[in-house]
Prior knowledge:
By secondary structure, this protein is of the alpha+beta class. It is built from 5 helices and 7 strands. The chain has helices spanning 37-47, 52-59, 63-80, 125-142, 152-170; strands at 13-16, 20-23, 88-96, 101-108, 115-121, 145-149, 183-185. The strands form 2 sheets. Strands 5-4-3-6-7 form a 5-stranded mixed sheet, covered by helices on one side. A two-stranded antiparallel ribbon has the order 1-2. Helix 1 (37-47) crosses helix 3, helix 2 (52-59) packs across helix 3 and helix 4 (125-142) packs parallel to helix 5 (152-170).
Amino acid sequence: MQYRTLVWAEVPRVRCAEHGVQQVGVPWADPRSRFTALFEAMVIDWLAVASFEAVARQCRLSWDQVSGIQARAVRRGLSRRAVAASPVVGVDETSFQRRHEYVTVVNDLTASEPRVLYVADGRDRAAIDGYFEAVGEEGCALIEMVAMDMWQAYIGSVQEHTWARRSTRSGGRRTGSCGNKGTTGW
């Protein structure tokens, strides 16, 4: 770990006619972050091998501060990456924070290493529709199979964006067991 360094700077504010008062960006930190980019990178590296609690204790941070660092890192990563299509995708929802708050995750099932293609808040139809809208018609045409739970919101979206488009060519719905009860391939 590096030496503890405190950076004290009076960051100027500017008044914009369109956006109101804005703080000028600084090269060493993200907007609204209390930590330097280098420190946040170290926290993210440690999160790959340790729990939130362990990282928070080691860095003398609260759980919320570690969570904020992680959220900013995810936002930066997703903003740099274009949503991609894959011939075989997996769709699942996962809950977090013990409050039955869900995110929908779309994974590339053809990659040798698991790869997340898309993440959206919620587990409703709008969450999965967002993936299909992001990849567009060309991306939807590439999709040959979707492995997913039998969640009605997901089924409807997959049928509308993939199966329904090809129903005249394929002759109908293709389903099959993928080894899990309640899981199907479209």
